[in-house]
User: Fold this.
Amino acid sequence: MNSLLLRGGRVIDPCHPGSGDTRDVVVRDGVIAAPQPGERHDETVDATGCVVMAGGIDLHTHIGGGKVNLARLLMAEDHRDGANPYPLPSNPLELASCGTCAPGTLATGYRYVEMGYTAAFEPAMVPSNARHAHMEMGDVPVLDHGAYVMLGSDELFLQLLAEGGPNLRNFSLIRDYTAWTIHASKAMGVKVVNPAGISAFKFNQRKLDVDEQHVRWQVTPRQVVHTLARALRELGVPHPLHIHGSNLGVAGNIQSTLETIAALEGLPAHLTHIQFHAYGTEGPKKFSSAALQLAEAVNAHPEISIDVGQIMFGQTVTASGDTMRQYAQSGLANPRKWVGADIEAMAGCGVVPFRYREQSYVNALQWVIGLEIFLSVKNPWQVVLTTDHPNGGPFTSYPHLIRLLMDRSFRDEQLAKLHPDVAANCALKSMTRELTLEEIAVMTRAGPARLLGLKDRGHLGEGAAADIAVYREDADREAMFRTPEHVFKDGIPVARAGRVIATPVGGTHFIEPGYDTAVEKTLRRHWAAHGSVNFDHVAIGKDELCRCCNGGRLLPTECFEGSGS
Amino acid sequence: MTTAWTCPFCPLACDHLAVRIGTGDEPLAPEGADCAWARRSLARFASRPAPAAASIDGQPASIDEALVAAVGLLATSRQPLIAGLGTDVAGARALYPLACALGAYCDAAGGDVLMQGLRALQDRGQFTTTLAEVRTRADVLVFVGGLPGALAPLMAERCGLGDPQVPARHVVVLGAAADDAAELAQWSTRPGITVESVPLHGDLFDTLSLLRAHAVGHAGCTGTSTPALAALVDRLKAARYGVLVGTPALLPAPGALVIEAVHQIVGDLNRSTRAAALWVGGGNGAATANQVFTWLSGLPMRTRAGPRGLEHNPWAYGAAQLMADGAVDALLWVSSFDADAAPPAEARALPAVVLGPPSQAPACLRERCVFIPVGTPGIGHDGHIFRTDGTVLMPLHAVRPDGLPSVADVAQRLLAGVQARLSS
Assistant:
């Protein structure tokens, strides 16, 4: 038995009463335990003057899989320092790995852990690329990981939806296909990207509004969103449908976003990188903030959660499954090059480098919109802190973002540097709210854990996994969150003062919803007629998953009792 | 007979063939369907694996002895090169830490060809497609610079030529090679397939430039209008989904510019209709090693963890060039798929460690050479390999276990040995 005492820290644990109190935290065999009088500990850490939180959980970050590797290949300039190579790591525990907006998997793990994060979820796993995605995630050291599999622009789903007719008489088949896809790809949830739109682009449609029909299948994004959300609800999938909505980046797309919320008809859903979907058409450039409208909708729909996808100024690369919208944005690529792909009659991808500039009216407004959303949604449990790494900016900018949210004077200083028309006219300039440590803890660990159904993560209650970050109190919140004093993963010390000190292999989160195996007959026929892989090779077994994930632990999450079963 | 076997030998990684396992020395053979490459490759493996020996300086040795000798050879090298890189994901994952520990240059066999595509991607990007997209939707296919032929024997099947779901497909070869005509004629007998051969106008790069001028409507202004190319552009613009297929290994120099020109034409077409490129290559583990090294480090092949840092140079760090320049003093050659791919002639002068199938042993019986037999993924053990389109990672299944260590096993033991040597 191995035990650890964290003594005298201020424990921020919004899941439990007494959060904010100064108290000891005890870890026994990798799990948070109740302190026992007179107990001796193998290790004692003095946490006086520190804030103790659960390890950070990033619920939406593009850390591994086909398009991420394409981004690395495309962005050779991200892997050198001007004309010079990046130096090798000084830490003998680290293998050489570099990049900021398209880091190698090894660098991804090191940099997350140094900031106190202990889990990260890849949000856009293409079914046919699932093995690859799990391989890459398995090569992200230390972090637990999982992925949402993409559905809703695959030809089979759209075909079944079309065949179902107005009453969707084949709904159970669609539901079983959804469950089977989760099973086959060992996913943690389902993401829909530009519902039906990736496929529509393959048939040469250049935009698709929520009620516009796909030319080939005559179905609409509204139907796709509702059907998938209902399927996940009935299957008891803990993480509700993860939605990258229609018309990403388009001025006036708040309309599509509100229509998407309406399409759900009260079903729970998570709207991702919502900053990119909260644009109006007012003002001199016909491009304006619709953050307040968005916040109003989120405040009125407690069943909806969002992550923000805050943009950060500087170079990044956007990697998305939304081929239609990435094609449309490719003219803005900086540097001028981009990658796109149509993938396996299932999905697509687009990788477009971007440099967000403070003096660009549009970019400045995007920055403002993200912060306005953070500050105007009332319930922090509905908001997750993300930059949609790397699309809004690299995850390494989280400490800076946290300071922007917690420190109004710092925020105002930054705002003053932006395009003057934006700085002068935005609602943000009069927003006084400063997020509390409690709220940051919700948005970066407790909230995401709850949204994913991870009962033993994101909090420090008895029985929780001992994923812990210990930050030294500092009025400069950026410095504080940049370099935690101590980070523990399942009770093992993995980072100390910004230096990785152990690199255990992380575990893989996935779910196993039940389904009628009769669906496999339909699928086998479909694969034989339209696929490029033997159906017997499509599903990833658990032994194979173990090999993909480098021998890390398999962490199945329970589904709840689905309403349809 | 095996079911659900994936053929690891060509870039298409087909998984609709089975393998017939005979007795004793009888070679393995494809079953259920046929493929010239699979047949030839399988024939190098006996149905019952023969005992395989390692060797040191031409003398038989145990695998343990060979590992000790290999560690000595690599750890005392001032600048080693890891080349060949014919391995699966597990092998590449294990070779990367070894490469870091040794500060080795890394390049795959066929690295020059691999770099053509990489450089085009790094400079301008690309728009590509995959086999299922081609099969289900492509109505015009243009093979740029010739058919892949023997490099991907089942190309027509994998592109769905003759599938009823696309009732009419037109196949064009732009700049056919001498023996393409017969294959094209055979393709034309498939239902719904029409074929056409369009000759080059100048060299391939000139031809693509002209094609591009037609695609963007400049050909008329510059007086370079060419009826055959104009017709081809019209056909592509009228297509629902036109796919330009190329085989980098068959392209004339400079291949990277040819690839870039194809991508630009795809970009031009995508302004009004839909099109994409498909590249056939990266077999024998080259694309797989490239993907794995890229995801681990951020940088692709032709990178080393050198004294200045993580240095990538797609021009200067080619294996053949480094050996010819005398820039390296030891070689670790890895080739677990191709039974005949012994180190290249330039390597004869270098001390070498060779990880290959037992059939490579005779070529490695020489001074200053350590040979360690390894299993072939998809024959002797399971594994994973990327298919030519780069998005599908195919599982490989053992046909008949041979008890040989995998590249991953050997690389891990080499790493442990090298680290022990370096820290002592």
Summary: Residues 53-500 of chain A form a domain with the TIM Barrel fold (CATH 3.20.20). The CA atoms of residues 270 and 438 of chain A lie 22 Å apart.
